[in-house]
């Protein structure tokens, strides 16, 4: 709570670009605008709104410009254009706090009418699951490339959103460690510690296990000071 | 020592015994503690050569607010002296007969008035009536054919009125002083016989000064000093017995006309309850009192006090006080009440959490009290509604919240100026105080502008909404039957939205101070409404069939507050792909069990179709709530309907 209060004091008006222009395309790059359910192939010079999603297919890449900077996305990645924005460390903290607000369980279940059991249908019909992990991985690749383009704060925020919308991606240790490292390097030790502790519960390789354990101990030492 | 400094009860500190009166003699010795009526009767015995028992006095005290009146009839306040004059007469049979003189002093009536000027100062006025009957046998010659002597009785009846004043000042709950005059004004009828002038009661002017000190909660030290260098002092100790008190006291007296220096002491015992006091008092003189004294001694010193003088004997006195309380004692007082909010009848439950008024209340007693505020809003309540209970320390002042009960079925068509009657009750469930304040009652459609309070408009019409929504879904039964159950809520939402918007138009509210919100049935009947009417309509329709919704309050979008809706599809994140391939059109929220669920935003003012409303809702939510971090900075708030 104290932390949230400090964060609120730090609140700044985060500006984010309103228009994005496709500068250069190699291979196949598609977009899904917010008012459509259909992917369309992009051409150089196309302008897109912030809530559009672009996907860069295999052996492709795209250069995107806005008023402030340009970013190149490589193959097998997906990104919502609004995540292409420069953020400060304070902005990142704010975004993580908002993430916590969205993630907090609602406390309103007592008076809700409960769904009744349904009989006579098979499990899939009752509870169909369409795995879409592949798209989630593309989104994580997009987030990684944000970091590689210098937008490390925005990369972390994007990754957190991907974990929530594509829960299976939370078990991908490489990605998890990559984004936890960013928090560590930004000296956001408490946030990094939460992530490393969560990662430690995954099935890790020996080098991953060693790195995560080492990071946890380092952070604990730093926080103890 | 003057009469008023010696009491047949002893010397007590009344402050320790609320609603008792153990200082009938002292003028305004303290603030009157009598609640209404006190009747007192006392019976006593004096131990001279033989024991004389008699009714001492009957009195009453009546208290009216800060005024106290008392009257006393005291047949037992009398002293009689019988002497031989030293003269005798030889009767015809050669026997002699001594001549006698009889001096009888009586205090018959007393009237007293005292007034509590404020919490510290009390004033008193005292009027006493004395009757002095002096008879003396004298020898008178009778001149006739044969001269002879006869014995005649010369009787003098002298009335005496004494008026005195006094005041007391209470420095604190523990320390009080008082000052009273003695014989300030006197009026006496002239004796018929000159020689009786020497025997009338002393009328010299004095004053008395008293101090009442309570060093501990149940103990007191009391001192009275008179300017003729007499004094009395006592120690009182009280014990609590349930709600009653038992008091013991020992007093000592010094009077320059009596010896030794401390001429007497008096133990006394009192039991005081709510309805009566019983007091037992005794006085023991340390000097042996003789039944016979010389006339010379009487003649030289005279007396100035009927009850306590150099010729008084040991005595005991038994007193019973009866306390009648025909009026309700006010324990709490309302200083003022501030109405904190107007009444919006639709927001009924809101008033159970937030006070409609704040009452500034004083505890008038020396005890911790429960304060129970109650309210009756004219036009809303038929009865007085008491909600909540608060503790208020002795003599403390506090601001007490007053909560209102607004019945759900109340129907107010027009905004009206009414009034609220606010009452205070204390421990005894007695009404201690009340006050009336004007209050604005808005119509049943009025809304205070707080988006969270739209919940009340959603819930109120739920039965209508349920039958309407069920009828719509029944018309699409075949479509719904072919869908996986998991998609049921999503498609029900879509069917209801698409079928309802066909007949609706967006109409903004008139620019008045308070918003006007339509209930779902009204919006459907009027075929339109503004954003809050439409949010209420769709939320009510969906909630009525078990689909969870939340209101989204956008506070700074183009400086206009805006409301739209989030709908829980109940899908898991893994199932989101079943309704859209565009992951910017949904949001993940955890339910109360911590399980992620897919929610979609709907712009309820977009009355084209469901898909458009969803797209617009998503764009607004992405831009305002997430990209601009409205959820964090408070510009966007998600409000659960239940």
Characterization of this structure:
The complex is a heterodimer of chains A (225) and B (642). By secondary structure, chain A is α+β, with helices and mostly antiparallel strands. Helix content of chain A is 45%, strand content 14%. Chain A contains eight helices and eight strands. Chain A has helices at 2-9, 89-103, 123-126, 133-148, 152-165, 173-185, 189-200, 206-224; strands at 20-26, 29-32, 40-41, 47-48, 53-56, 61-65, 70-73, 77-80. In chain A, the strands form two sheets. Chain A has a four-stranded antiparallel β-sheet. In chain A, strands 3-2-5-8 form a four-stranded antiparallel β-sheet. With 642 residues, chain B is mainly β. In chain B, a hairpin with a 3-residue loop joins strand 11 (219-226) and strand 12. In chain B, helix 7 crosses helix 8 (531-544). Chain B is rod-shaped, with a radius of gyration of 44 Å. The mean pLDDT of chain B is 86. Classes of the chains: A alpha+beta (225), B mainly beta (642). Chains A and B meet through helix 2 and helix 3 of A and strand 31, helix 9 and helix 10 of B.
Strand and helix layout:
The complex is a heterodimer of chains A (about 220) and B (about 650).
Chain A: H1 2-9, E1 20-26, E2 29-32, E3 40-41, E4 47-48, E5 53-56, E6 61-65, E7 70-73, E8 77-80, H2 89-103, H3 123-126, H4 133-148, H5 152-165, H6 173-185, H7 189-200, H8 206-224
Antiparallel strand pairs in A: 1-4, 1-6, 2-3, 2-5, 5-8, 6-7
Chain B: E1 37-47, E2 51-64, E3 67-73, E4 78-90, E5 96-116, E6 121-142, E7 148-172, E8 175-182, E9 185-188, E10 206-216, E11 219-226, E12 230-241, E13 244-254, E14 264-272, E15 276-285, H1 295-301, E16 315-324, E17 332-339, H2 350-353, E18 357-363, E19 369-377, E20 385-386, E21 390-392, E22 397-402, E23 416-425, E24 431-441, E25 446-447, H3 454-460, H4 462-474, H5 477-481, H6 488-501, E26 505-506, E27 515-516, H7 520-526, E28 528-529, H8 531-544, E29 549-554, E30 562-568, E31 587-590, E32 596-602, H9 610-627, H10 630-633, E33 636-640
Helix pairs in contact in B: 3-8, 4-8, 7-8
